[in-house]
């Protein structure tokens, strides 16, 4: 493949890290950045296929860019083996402990294939983020084993929402709350604006088309491809609109977590966005039948062997509540949350609160979501919530550079 590297980044990377870099472009005076990740899951090849299509096209218009673009292959070893992962899911691998173990001066040696992949990606992220002086946008391109329309998966910060609303796509909020160690959660915590995208079924040609369309719109929406460039992306907007239909915003309500020994088997025929009723039989596993714990729409039903999520259930959120949440977050109402009965700060953990749900039973998790908190864990009847980092303010607005 045609590899074009921004000299200053390409030159400081090790050989293994630079093998992830499928393309790098830099133009104009702006230092805003767009990072595109493809095939973080190695069996989801449509993301890197779309990147391969775009590299020669960007080469033709590179003098029109005003910012930096990095096109990156995620799990390179799994991509070669055409598997979701080799030893462990790379998109659950970026946990606090492993991030500490992966620091350049860490004495901990890599133990598996994904430890190596993670260290190589961190090398690139560190090089890109430490040289960023304006907003950094990240796309993470995925596909699903089930059929169905494409959709975005968005960590629920106001900055992520506002970026995503510029795309004509349906999106799911709050998936990061259900999963530990995702790459986008890590990049959000470092101040990037992120958008995950499920383009359709793994093998569908339309998944490559949808990914390519998303990347072109991201170039425009991040302003790395400025208005004055006169590059027309309306054709790509049409492609995404046609495959999405009416745009909706949904919130994840439930995740059915599975392990290989559960012998989970989804009933055939479920598609993304298919409505399900509470109590409806969805799957079977060793322990017995699996039914829907609540009504909603089913998302990402698992029809492949590897994976830790059997299915998700989501529900639509109205524009009204999105607007209310925006206002409450901008007003920093969360700063007053400790004044409520049954809500206490957790010492030593910034922005973290313990909610005694016996006392504060009128403030369910949804209220905390509105204010910009995410659930961390349950501790008996106590709910631990944390404010999301960089929810309303960019690190570049306050010149806080997060280069850990
Ligand atoms: Zn994936």
In short:
By secondary structure, this protein is α/β, with parallel strands linked by helices. It has helices at residues 7-12, 15-18, 46-61, 76-81, 96-101, 113-130, 158-164, 175-178, 183-189, 205-221, 234-244, 319-330, 365-370; strands spanning 21-27, 33-38, 67-73, 136-144, 151-154, 171-173, 193-201, 249-257, 265-266, 274-276, 281-285, 288-291, 296-299, 309-316, 343-345, 352-356, 373-379, 382-387.
Lay out the secondary structure.
Layout: H1 7-12, H2 15-18, E1 21-27, E2 33-38, H3 46-61, E3 67-73, H4 76-81, H5 96-101, H6 113-130, E4 136-144, E5 151-154, H7 158-164, E6 171-173, H8 175-178, H9 183-189, E7 193-201, H10 205-221, H11 234-244, E8 249-257, E9 265-266, E10 274-276, E11 281-285, E12 288-291, E13 296-299, E14 309-316, H12 319-330, E15 343-345, E16 352-356, H13 365-370, E17 373-379, E18 382-387
Parallel strand pairs: 2-3, 2-4, 4-7, 5-6, 6-8
Antiparallel strand pairs: 1-3, 5-7, 8-14, 9-11, 10-13, 11-12, 13-14, 15-16, 16-18, 17-18
Helix pairs in contact: 3-10, 10-11
């Amino acid at each position: 493949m045609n590899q074009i590297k921004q000299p200053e980044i390409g030159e400081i990377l090790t050989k293994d890290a630079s093998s992830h870099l499928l393309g790098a472009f830099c133009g104009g005076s702006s230092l805003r950045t767009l990072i595109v990740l493809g095939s973080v899951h190695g069996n989801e090849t449509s993301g890197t296929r779309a990147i391969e299509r775009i590299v020669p096209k960007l080469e033709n218009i590179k003098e029109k860019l005003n910012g930096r673009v990095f096109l990156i292959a995620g799990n390179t070893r799994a991509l070669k083996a055409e598997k979701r992962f080799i030893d462990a899911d790379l998109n659950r691998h970026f946990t606090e402990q492993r991030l500490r173990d992966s620091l350049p001066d860490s004495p901990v040696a890599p133990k598996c294939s994904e430890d190596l992949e993670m260290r190589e990606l961190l090398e690139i992220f560190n090089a890109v983020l430490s040289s960023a002086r304006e907003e950094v946008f990240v796309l993470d391109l995925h596909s699903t084993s089930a059929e169905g329309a494409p959709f975005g998966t968005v960590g629920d910060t106001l900055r992520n929402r506002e970026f995503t609303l510029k795309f004509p796509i349906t999106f799911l909020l709050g998936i990061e709350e259900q999963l530990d160690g995702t790459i986008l959660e890590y990049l959000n915590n470092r101040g990037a604006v992120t958008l995950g995208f499920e383009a359709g079924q793994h093998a569908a040609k339309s998944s490559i088309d949808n990914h390519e369309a998303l990347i072109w719109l991201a170039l425009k929406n991040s302003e790395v491809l400025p208005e004055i460039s006169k590059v027309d992306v309306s054709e790509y907007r049409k492609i995404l609109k046609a495959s999405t239909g009416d745009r909706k915003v949904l919130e994840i309500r439930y995740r059915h977590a599975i392990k290989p020994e559960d012998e989970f088997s989804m009933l055939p025929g479920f598609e993304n966005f298919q409505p399900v009723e509470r109590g409806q039989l969805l799957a079977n596993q060793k322990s017995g039948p699996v039914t829907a714990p609540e009504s909603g729409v089913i998302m990402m039903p698992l029809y492949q062997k590897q994976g830790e999520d059997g299915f998700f259930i989501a529900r639509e959120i109205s524009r009204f509540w999105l607007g209310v949440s925006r206002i409450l977050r901008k007003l920093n109402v969360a700063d007053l949350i400790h004044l409520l009965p049954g809500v206490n700060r957790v010492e030593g953990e910034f922005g973290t609160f313990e909610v005694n749900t016996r006392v504060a039973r009128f403030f369910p998790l949804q209220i905390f979501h509105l204010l910009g908190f995410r659930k961390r864990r349950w501790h008996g009847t106590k709910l631990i919530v944390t404010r999301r980092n960089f929810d309303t303010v960019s690190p570049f607005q306050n010149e806080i550079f997060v280069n850990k």
